[in-house]
């Protein structure tokens, strides 16, 4: 397969040209060779790399995490256990976010249950509780 233009790579990988330029600036995608007229020419394996980046983002890895995973992938001393430990850390981060979101949902449900939705704005129990929290934290 021949080298790909930035548009061809974007189309094949299912991303935008701007996304590819961003990945390039972030160091996630190697700077491609250029034609004499200045057009980027990506090797065919770039499609796989961009899809890897996209999939890693979908499962919660940050761009920094992804950069580290890509670097580890190139390191001959990296073991599968190294990658697994990063996945386990990401699971722990996700679990923490879930607990935080559950706490937020519970607080909002409690406030919404206190409010009948009727009456004057000055008597709104949701606003009163938010004011009370501000006083307790301030």
UniProtKB/TrEMBL annotation:
Gene3D superfamilies: 1.10.1660.10. One of its GO terms (molecular function) is DNA binding. Residues 3-72 form the HTH merR-type domain. PROSITE patterns: HTH_MERR_1, HTH_MERR_2. The keyword Transcription regulation applies. Pfam families: MerR_1. Keywords: Coiled coil, DNA-binding, Transcription, Transcription regulation. The keyword Coiled coil applies. Residues 84-114 form a coiled coil. InterPro entries: DNA-bd_dom_put_sf (IPR009061), MerR-type_HTH_dom (IPR000551), MerR_fam (IPR047057). PANTHER family: HEAVY METAL-DEPENDENT TRANSCRIPTIONAL REGULATOR HI_0293-RELATED, REDOX-CYCLING DRUG-SENSING TRANSCRIPTIONAL ACTIVATOR SOXR. This is MerR family mercuric resistance operon transcriptional regulator.
